[in-house]
Amino acid sequence: MEVFDPAELWSRERIEETQLVRLKNTVGQARKCDFYRQRLDEAGIGPDSLRSLDDLRRIPFTTKEDLRTQYPTGMLSVPQTEIVRMHCSSGTTGSPVAICHTQNDINSWADLMARCMHMVGVRREDVFQNMSGYGLFTGGLGIHFGAERLGCLTIPAGAGNSRRQIKLAKDFRTTVAHILPSYALILGEHLRNMGEDPREFPLRVALVGAEPYTEEFRRRIEGLFDMKAYNSYGLSEMNGPGVAFECLEQSGMHLWEDAYIPEIIDPETCQPVPDGEVGELVMTCLCRQGMPILRYRTRDLTRFIPGECGCGRLHRRMDRILGRSDDMFIIKGVNVYPMQVEQVIMTFPEVGQSYLILLENDGIGDVMRVQVEVRDEFFVEDMRALQNLQKSIAQRLRDEILITPKVELVQSNSLPRTEGKAVRLQDLRAKK
Ligand code: ADP
Ligand code: ZN
């Protein structure tokens, strides 16, 4: 197999040996900042305490709150003059945190990203269009540098502006794009409204990530453009994209274990869950000097996929993100994730590109409303067909989440659009 980096084909022994060496170095590096030196001393972890990978579990977790209190530069492990770039998390779930990188950090991140793209068949002959926001968001420059590292003609198109995206892609014959799942459907719809068939669009591969989406959603994107869509996972705290990526098998994302140590824990007990069970992903970076982060609680819920991948790589795979622990909402005593709702509604061919879950209180109790965009060709049908659709969606949702929401069918393009990550949930209950 042709690979970008020989580390992709390492044996488990080689991966684990390297992890231990790099973990020791990373802990040594982290001790150069006051925050970690204090934390590690309190936990009794000295420079020589780590004898095996199991000792990782003695290291205390790092939380988003830690990063917030150390903002902006409290967690630097090098003098600030060594830092060449900073990024912030998108702030989807609160005030942002800043992550600072040295030139070496940036280079190894670009290598990881190039490795991911190469794995799904992207080569220097490809024209790559990055349709995600640039600026502080890591999906811009992070993927950009990976594409350049591969040698692709790289178009930094940025987010939104479908008309310009389409023109650039046609003029330069773009073959590969990085695109947020919510935006992929919007772009397809835009092409259709221009009277064009999205399947004629030159794209053959899309890297799709940055926000949760279901398998049903992926199939939709692939069918719409007649292309392959590969799931891409990352978070600013661990650089950004390039942390885990699907291979051609499309059966889970390989976590690059030469660069990270992933763990999946029970968020309540903080103990590891058995292989294959869902828990919270915890990540330690192994290749960062500017701002190493140990045992970071991502709040993302997923599971390790047991067994070996058909592609032959032995880096473990994780399942698509079920949701963030912060996304979960409780209604009438039931725990629900927005992805459960998406999974149901995206199986209906009548459903268009977007949906929104609204939680309200009508004075008597909590009410869940789901607004679902319906594709234009179905909206013109008679009332009865629409009522039936509404009923079947409500019933299927009830089967999945055990409560019956109010389903409202709305016209396509009527729900609010964002240029960044899609907003799938509005909880208006507290504001009453
Ligand atoms: P924020 O947490 O503010 O959105 P980031 O821009 O760093 O900040 O986004 C990282 C988060 O995005 C991850 O923790 C995860 O919740 C989500 N995410 C990234 N890639 C994916 C993916 N492929 N599937 C699901 N969620 C993803
Ligand atoms: Zn694989």
From TrEMBL:
GO biological process, one term: phenylacetate catabolic process
Subunit details: Monomer.
Enzyme class of the recorded protein, top EC level: ligase
Pathway: Aromatic compound metabolism; phenylacetate degradation
GO molecular function per UniProt: nucleotide binding; phenylacetate-CoA ligase activity
Reaction catalysis annotation: 2-phenylacetate + ATP + CoA = phenylacetyl-CoA + AMP + diphosphate
InterPro entries listed in its UniProt record: Adenylate-forming_Reductase, AMP-bd_C_sf, AMP-dep_Lig_C, AMP-dep_synth/lig_dom, ANL_N_sf, PA_CoA_ligase
Segment forming the signal sequence: none
Name of the protein in question: Phenylacetate-coenzyme A ligase
AMP-dependent ligase C-terminal domain sequence ranges: 333-429
Family membership noted in the UniProt record: Belongs to the phenylacetyl-CoA ligase family.
Entry EC no(s): 6.2.1.30
Organism of provenance: Desulfovibrio intestinalis
Protein role: Catalyzes the activation of phenylacetic acid (PA) to phenylacetyl-CoA (PA-CoA).
Keywords attached to this entry: Ligase, Nucleotide-binding, Phosphopantetheine, Phosphoprotein
Sections of the chain in a coiled coil: none
Domain AMP-dependent synthetase/ligase: 81-283
